[in-house]
Amino acid sequence: MRVRDHQDGQLEEFIAARTQDLHHDAYQFTAAQQPAEELVIAVLAAMRREQIDMAQAGSTARLRMARASVRDNTPTQDSDPSQLAARFRPLTRLSPRQRAVLALQVVDNYDERETSRVLRMTTRAVTDTIRSIPYDELPGASPHSGELRSLLEDFGDLATAPSASTTLADVRAAPPPPRRPWWTYVAALLVIALTVGTLVISQSRYEEWAHSPKGLNHIHGTHFPAYTEGYKLVAIHDVKPGPPAEFSVDGSGAVTMNCADLRPGLGISSSSELNSGTYFNAACSAKAQQPQLIPAGGQTSVSINDSSRPSWPVAVYRKVSWEDYPVATGHFVVARDKTVDALRRQTGRNGQRITPLAAGTVLTMRGPAGSPNGTFRGQLELPASAGATELDITGLLSPTTTGRFRVRLNGQAPWMNCASSNVTRMTLHPDDWCGLYDRHIPQVDFSTVDASSTLRTRRITVELSVQHARGPWTLQVVADRYKTDASAVDDGANG
Description:
Layout: H1 2-30, H2 33-50, H3 57-69, H4 89-92, H5 96-106, H6 112-119, H7 123-132, H8 146-156, H9 164-173, H10 182-201, H11 203-210, H12 213-220, E1 227-228, E2 231-239, E3 245-257, E4 267-272, E5 280-283, E6 294-304, E7 312-319, E8 333-334, H13 340-344, E9 346-347, E10 353-354, E11 358-359, E12 363-367, E13 374-381, E14 389-399, E15 403-409, E16 415-417, E17 434-436, E18 440-441, E19 444-450, E20 459-467, E21 473-483
Parallel strand pairs: 8-18
Antiparallel strand pairs: 1-2, 2-7, 3-6, 3-7, 4-5, 4-6, 9-10, 11-21, 12-21, 13-20, 14-19, 14-21, 15-17, 15-20, 16-19
Helix pairs in contact: 1-2, 1-3, 1-8, 1-9, 2-3, 2-9, 5-7, 6-7
């Protein structure tokens, strides 16, 4: 009894402090006063029965109300829109599921995967719900609009909260869930018996499942993510250390292995028809947060140089089209840690700064927020040519959203650091677009060197092609001339 009395005392304090907030949240989901009150009572009664830790009661109650609401995907009928201000009426026409997903997106800042997890829905169901919400009828026409957040908060304020004592009395009086009939327990025992028998019979199948992408991820904590940087996991092969193992990779794919258990400096080597049989090595990095992918295609050879295990799992990925990949669409985290001036700065072998013989001016191109996609061109002025010099062109692309980007300098592709150290990019790879798929949006730098002293043109055409971008971007390009012997340090160099 002391535990129950203590729990009720904490619950009473919680209700006294949060009654209005609870009904505010419930109204966001139900869009009607009576259903909001019933939802609050049902959730609090369940929390009382389960003796939930009251330290997290606020967030627990809100998420439970959201989970209860997503069970109903029919438009609300209890509201009387004529009694509401016109700006609230689009919300009343949504279903409880749509309002719950919308509130978690807009108010709680959850992305689709987080929403799927907390609501215990499939990601596809969450995606379908988001697509069904008529954002064009809502202020800001975007799930990330400050106007839309204000609208939802004001909508919740329409709720009228009963007194704390009335709410607590209703919670205590709420009937427990109906007891299950006897036959359900018999059925449960039968299911358990069948499950045990099935596990014994299917033990041989378990090994096959454990080496599938789904099984391996489940067992080992997703050290081979199902999707990564435009690729999808499609197969797992056990490779013994020593001589190369042979297997086929369909289309434009990639291979990798989990570096977590490898000794430092060891890794994987791969060659395939895609890269004309040339071996490429990928040493493991302690900083790598995702698999380091080696592009491959067709008949592929893979070797591993760590013999501390009898075999190592090697993952095979397949390139996925943009339309079929789960590309992030919001809540972007934009990096701005690079500058074009820092990238163009060169140092000699002794670490001292090398001063260019002729420094160029920076060409800046910008993609407007309203129409960031397309092909954009600019003319980069080059320093005057001089004997025994090389022309270094340095560029920095600063996107703000996901998208696909491709740079051309006089029609030629420069070497590009496509925003990730986890993908081994080779010029032989057929996809020379730089794709940004994740919510973390880094800067992309590129460079090229022309050591020819006969280049007489005074300008080159810089071309940037952009696809699927959702916001503005900035491109900066500059050309400098240095002595051909880059190890030499000018007399006027800075330390």
